[in-house]
Design a protein that fits this description.
With 178 residues, this protein is an alpha/beta fold. 51% of the residues lie in helices and 15% in strands. Helix 1 (2-21) packs antiparallel against helix 2 and helix 5 (106-122) crosses helix 7.
Length: 178
């Protein structure tokens, strides 16, 4: 949050200085034609720059939110090796949804609560597994994953369906046969 405020202040100051020079004589740059619009333009650009470099800031989760996330995440099994993948997915007796993701991937983070919702709905009828491609790249490579999030449904140890990008809970539940 401090980085964001500092970037807005510095961007605003630089924009104000540029606007005070009134160097725009063509009228093609109205955002820097006076100190006020220059400061506003600079502050907005500072905000976008810090957001792009450091990501946007989000409020901290309450202890209740953390407890709910911990409960939901116990329904999703994390697989970190080929042996675990074979045991949890390929040898599974129930349909299995595999979520291939990474911590730095914003769409993957958006997909995670949906995957947890599907895991909750599945109960004993299906299994939900997540594979961090940074920690288990060999699994992702063996599945031919080139984009994340990738969600793969396995039935009887064989791939049934594959989805790339964020998917709805209904789409994933239908693919699992729920």
């Amino acid at each position: 949050m401090a980085k964001l405020v500092i970037a807005i202040l510095i961007g605003g100051a630089i924009g104000g200085l540029i606007g005070s020079r009134r160097s725009c004589e063509t009228g093609a740059c109205p955002l820097t034609s006076n100190p006020y619009s220059g400061a506003l333009y600079g502050a907005v650009m500072g905000f976008f720059l810090v957001s792009a470099v450091f990501g946007t800031t989000t409020p901290r989760a309450s202890t209740e939110d953390t407890a709910m996330a911990a409960t939901a995440s116990t329904l999703v099994t994390e697989v970190k090796s080929n042996d675990e993948f074979k045991q949890q997915v390929l040898n599974a007796t129930v349909p299995t949804l595999v979520d291939l993701w990474a911590t730095w991937c914003a769409p993957c983070r958006a997909q995670m609560p949906i995957v947890e919702q599907v895991a909750e709905k599945a109960g004993d009828k299906a299994r939900v597994v997540k594979v961090n491609v940074d920690e288990a790249g060999d699994i992702a490579e063996s599945l031919g994953v080139s984009s994340i999030p990738t969600l793969v449904v396995f039935k009887g140890g064989k791939e049934e369906k594959r989805f790339v990008g964020v998917q709805s809970a209904d789409t994933l539940s239908r693919a699992l046969g729920l």
